Amino acid sequence: MVTAVAGPDADLTVFDGHELHVVPAASTLTFEHTYTWFGHQRRLRVTANPNVTLSRSHVPWHCQRARIVVLGPLTQHELDAASFLEYDGLWNQLYRGRQYIGLMAQGFQRRLAPDGRVLPLQTPSPQLLAGLGRWRRVSLFLSDVETDTWSEDWLGLVVGSAQRVLITRGSQGATEYNDTGVHTIGIVPVDKVRDTNGAGDTFATGYMLALARGFRDPGNHASWAASRAVMQGQACKPQCAGDLIEGHVAHWGLADRAGAALRGLVEVVHGAVDLTLRDGLAALVHLRGLPRGALWKVLAAPPSSNALAPLPPGGADAGVDPTEWTVERSGVS
């Protein structure tokens, strides 16, 4: 299912064949593309902005706990990623199973000039940091265009806050940071590159699909899907994206499928134990720290949508100091 913000003049035929939920707005986010240096450099300018921030509350209830969620903001304020990380509680998560959340955060690394020009940020934006939440649940996708200007401290902070970070590098493949270290994901050679637009999105979606299915090497699946995408024309990609991403599944043998099923079962058991311990310990620590007579106030207070992912200090369009953000995060109980 696709949830999108769109104005009354939006052409939504690109989503034909998909379940679509539209959040109405006065206008549709529109970019103007200008190519310079013989087409090798692209400049973007926003010509229409709906000024609507998409959040989890906009998503239909039956889709809020989908198995796989892929978030793709195009600008800093288009999406409230932190709202999709709101903690549902032990019973809800045990009943519905683990949710895999992927964040394609290129849009969070763009700021808009007064004339609408799209300018890059040199450090991680507050929206990106808040979108990672507290529980390291997010698979973060960026390109080297956004991360090459980051210091080692910034990169270390982001890697330590996400479940995994994948940085695509065009023809050089991709780099994955996870709990086991730093890994290189190679490319799948293609006969002819027709159009590279959408290759990163296809890579991220293919990775999340393979991850949720328990495949041993999601990066290999993602690289294969991206290689199919660059061989297609731009007009094909919205309609044939599903075939591009799903096509590699047929190449997995019986042993791979059995191993994926076993890893999925182990993950469910591990997740249940982790949730039980985490909820129980968090509740005990929190309640012991309350003054007498304050419990009823906590139970009666409405939940805060920002409790799990507070914005770091600093402006909305500027990076913040990594040391300050580390202190801020460690102070949240």
UniProtKB/TrEMBL annotation:
<dbReference type="Pfam" id="PF00294">
    <property type="entry name" value="PfkB"/>
</dbReference>
<dbReference type="InterPro" id="IPR011611">
    <property type="entry name" value="PfkB_dom"/>
</dbReference>
<protein>
    <recommendedName>
        <fullName>Carbohydrate kinase PfkB domain-containing protein</fullName>
    </recommendedName>
</protein>
<feature type="compositionally biased region" description="Low complexity">
    <location>
        <begin position="310"/>
        <end position="322"/>
    </location>
</feature>
<dbReference type="InterPro" id="IPR029056">
    <property type="entry name" value="Ribokinase-like"/>
</dbReference>
<feature type="region of interest" description="Disordered">
    <location>
        <begin position="310"/>
        <end position="333"/>
    </location>
</feature>
<feature type="domain" description="Carbohydrate kinase PfkB">
    <location>
        <begin position="162"/>
        <end position="235"/>
    </location>
</feature>
